[in-house]
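Deviations from the work plan: none for this task. Representative record:
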Amino acid sequence: MEDDILIDNYFKGLLSEDEERSFLERLSTDASFNEKFKLEEQMINALSEDGWDFAKAPSEEVEAYSDLLKKEELQRLKKTLSEVNSEFNAKKNISNRRLFYYLAAAFIVVFLGLQLFFNQNISNQKLYNDYIALNDLPSFVSRSDESNQLAKAQEFFENKKYEEALLIFKSVVSLKDVSGSVLIYKGIAETELGQYNDAQETFDSLINSNLLDVQKGYWYKALLYLKQNRVEESKVILKKIVSEELYKNNEAQKLLKQLD
Amino acid sequence: MADNSYYLKALLSSNSHVITDIYKENFYKVKSFILKNNGQQEDAEDIFQKALLQLAVRYKKEKFIINSSFEAYLFTVCKNLWRRELNKSKNKVTKHSFIEPKDDNEDIALAVLEQKRWELFTENLERISDNCKQILKLFFAKMSYADIMKKFDYNSETVVRQRVFKCKNKLKELIVKDKRFSSLKEL
């Protein structure tokens, strides 16, 4: 037990210099103590997670394994292993490289697609702006509504203050005898504010009304779809405008060509 | 369980098909272990080849039997070889005595015997009582006597210390009696 504690303390580095000197001296003179120490050392090195129990003395067995490794059979294995290893790990690299090319190609396709999409998007917006022709909208200024509210709304509209304009248009729309022009202004204001569903509702209510401006409802709804890049739906309406010779059918024809 | 000697025989006949299969089944696991433990791709490739050579030369000399699956055994050998590599550099710093191998062959030969001695210790550790095994595993994991005392509800560190000595002696008894011991102790 005392020897065990001594050995334990040696491994833990708890011996003083003097104690360590006499410990090492005993190792070289006391064979059974030496044997005990070696077993303890081997055991600790082998069984501790971060250690390793190295061979400390040459032996015939080491020699025997070493000789076998030099013979043809294992030399051939060594060569085969090195070949399989480089093929196995190179294959992986090649397939990695191939994967890289696939990814690169996929990226380019996506990139071009996006580019196309944005270009398309940009040109749709441009077409919308070209055809919406806000200057062509009827003016409320000359007319006399009671509070001159519509003239005020138009002023907001022309200054692109669509929110303020919309407030007034909405209050006017709720009145009974609303004009088509008010609905058109309202719909365009909603379109400009990105309130596309409201805009669509507004133009639909114009289309489904018995107002003189029903035809205009189709035209502005077509432009609303164009603004939203709903090109196919826009085309359907434009074709209707052309075939039925509705409001702006010449423009519709031109626009259809530009969209194709 | 498949016949483990199938792989060992394939190694000795340098059967590149079977060896490729061994790579497919085992290499990535070994690689991920080595990468997680401060190694590189080249280390993984090197260790894997050395492990297979170790198995082959050992089988050539003594037709040993693998008691677990071939995959589990190969992984253990790779883990040990990597532990060995990491400790080699540690030992160079602390100037611990160990044999500087003449060449790669001798290095593999030494590793075979060290692996055998490691098996002698770990297999016998599994043979002692559960309580002893648990205590020793914590002791070898460098847990302090004080922490072991708390974990096992012992009354004092002295009791733990005595228990550790007792368990170590049990283990040593088994090891010394093991017929493999005499050829491995002087290594």
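The first helix of chain B runs from residue 5 to 12.
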